[in-house]
Amino acid sequence: MDSGLFQVNQRVEIYLSKSRQGDVFYSRIEEITPTHMIISMPMEKGQPLVVNSGAPVYGRLLGETALYLFKSIFIDRRMSPRPVWLMSFPSEVQKVQLREFVRISSKLPVAVRVETLPSVMQPTGLFIRDISGGGVQILSKQPFPSRAKVSLRFELPEVGPIETKGEVTRVQQPKSDPSSYWVGVKFIDLPEKERSHIIKYIFKLEVERRRKGLD
Questions:
Q1: E-state strands within the chain
Q2: Mind listing the pLDDT tens digit of every residue in the chain (215 residues)?
Q3: Do the domain assignments include residue 64?
Q4: Which residue, 84, 85, 186, 196, is most buried by CB atoms nearer than 10 A?
Q5: CATH number at residue 158
Q6: What domain range is 73 assigned to?
Q7: Together in a domain, 110 and 204
């Protein structure tokens, strides 16, 4: 196992169910040893989460380009000098690629230049409907040419501008809004550093929505 996946101050989600369904408890890695991991005390309704010693717990954390699921064993809790959980070092680590599969709804303004269109016909007033590490779906008032090459620029909160090339993969005219078009765009040659920024944005947005009970 690559122990470098787990870093002090890294945020983790803790689940009591192997399926990782149901309640999620948010925590942070406080300390790591070759055999143990110490995390900040997960809380339930403002109170320390109660788990029996020896019980399995399940977690997930975000790496640079993937989500990692892991299993650990709860050993003990300590209240001083700060409330923490003592757990076995994570085992059964599973890597889940995010770049193509995890997509989240959004409403980010995006500037797009379609290579085959003259300046006067370039689309304006565009928004990203959803985003993944592999591409975006754009809300537009005009259709895009199929398979057209495009240039995109959008701002990620707390990150800054993302600029990349893309290719139109699909154009839909939704029945719910026939005056609009949903334009699927696949990223082309997106640098891994910027892909990582997008994935972390998706993960953070997902966590925030879960906390607010929107998912």
A1: 11-15, 25-32, 36-40, 43-44, 47-48, 56-62, 66-78, 84-88, 91-97, 103-114, 126-132, 135-140, 149-156, 160-172, 181-188
A2: 455 788 898 888 899 888 776 678 889 999 999 999 999 999 888 889 999 999 999 998 876 656 788 999 999 999 988 999 999 999 889 887 655 556 788 889 999 999 999 998 999 999 999 998 889 999 999 999 989 999 999 999 888 999 999 999 999 998 888 899 999 999 998 888 888 888 888 877 876 766 664 44
A3: yes
A4: 85
A5: 2.40.10.220
A6: 10-96
A7: yes
